[in-house]
């Protein structure tokens, strides 16, 4: 079976008890912590910044932190999140004037780099920077909010992205973000994803262990 990663999005966690929530999903079997950064500029919502990432590291979180930047511009936040202990740093190509340079910046700071594509954005912007990418993240909802429905056209895009990655022969994660649950995770994996962000499906459940186990069962089927 592929090496699938489950990355709960803390956007749907209880922010008043964030450290405990992160501990709980990791103890429940999650692989990564998906960390959504919104600036009320690139997206119409505002969340958390590098200080909170650092606080999670100081709290003792050693799991990979998958920082999804929905901010514009990106370079200052890349520097600050690298310093705050991010593992992956991904950004939206529209939010950087110089995509290749921002990707190089992430690499130079010792983090893994990725680009995030909105539902209507084609794969063109990743094509010429594949050698700089550790991850392609496809949005299956419009960024800004948790709890939205998966946009089905993303399945075709996943297949295209998977073909592109496989043809490149490079080790690039294909992550999906938005509207993922145990109900659709198998279909999404079959379309080529190997990392799965899930916010509301996990944090709105009473039993994190049960919902993550259910997702893994679907992935193994
Ligand atoms: C949306 C965020 C997502 C969000 C996913 O802009 O990037 O990570 O938390 O939430 P769900 O899984 O509820 O769609
Ligand atoms: Zn996200």
Secondary-structure-derived class: alpha/beta
Largest sheet: 8 strands, parallel
Assigned CATH superfamily:
Aldolase class I
Q: Beta-sheet strand percentage?
A: 15-25%
How would you describe this protein?
Keywords: Carbohydrate metabolism, Isomerase, Metal-binding. Its cofactor is Zn(2+); Mn(2+); a divalent metal cation; Fe(2+). With 221 residues, the protein is an alpha/beta fold. It has one domain (5-220): TIM Barrel. 37% of the residues lie in helices and 18% in strands. It contains 9 helices and 8 strands. It has helices spanning 18-27, 50-59, 75-83, 99-108, 124-127, 154-168, 185-190, 200-203, 208-220; strands at 5-8, 33-38, 65-70, 88-91, 112-117, 135-139, 173-177, 195-198. The protein is globular. Zinc ion binds at residues 9, 34, 36, 68, 177, 197.
Short description:
The chain has about 220 residues and is of the alpha/beta class. It is about 35% helix and about 20% strand.
Helix and strand layout, with pairings?
Blueprint: E1 5-8, H1 18-27, E2 33-38, H2 50-59, E3 65-70, H3 75-83, E4 88-91, H4 99-108, E5 112-117, H5 124-127, E6 135-139, H6 154-168, E7 173-177, H7 185-190, E8 195-198, H8 200-203, H9 208-220
The protein binds D-xylitol-5-phosphate and zinc ion.
D-xylitol-5-phosphate binds next to β2, β8 and α8.
Function: Catalyzes the reversible epimerization of D-ribulose 5-phosphate to D-xylulose 5-phosphate.
Family: Belongs to the ribulose-phosphate 3-epimerase family.
Organism: Biformimicrobium ophioploci
């Amino acid at each position: 079976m592929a090496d699938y990663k489950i990355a709960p999005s803390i956007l749907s966690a209880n922010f008043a008890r964030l450290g405990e929530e992160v501990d709980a999903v990791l103890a429940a079997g999650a692989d990564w912590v998906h960390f959504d950064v919104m600036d009320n500029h690139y997206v119409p919502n505002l969340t958390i910044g590098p200080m909170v990432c650092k606080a999670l590291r100081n709290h003792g979180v050693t799991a990979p932190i998958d920082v999804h930047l929905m901010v514009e511009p990106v370079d200052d936040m890349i520097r600050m999140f690298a310093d705050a202990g991010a593992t992956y740093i991904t950004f939206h190509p529209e939010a950087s004037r110089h995509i290749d340079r921002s990707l190089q910046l992430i690499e130079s700071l010792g983090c893994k780099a990725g680009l995030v594509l909105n539902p209507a954005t084609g794969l063109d912007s990743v094509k010429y920077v594949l050698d700089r990418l550790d991850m392609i993240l496809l949005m299956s909802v419009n960024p800004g909010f948790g709890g939205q429905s998966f946009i089905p056209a993303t399945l075709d895009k996943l297949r295209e992205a998977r073909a592109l990655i496989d043809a490149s022969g490079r080790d690039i994660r294909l992550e999906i973000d938005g509207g993922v649950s145990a109900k659709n995770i198998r279909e999404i994996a079959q379309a080529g994803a190997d990392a799965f962000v899930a916010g509301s499906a996990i944090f709105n459940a009473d039993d994190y262990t049960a919902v993550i186990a259910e997702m893994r069962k679907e992935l193994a089927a």
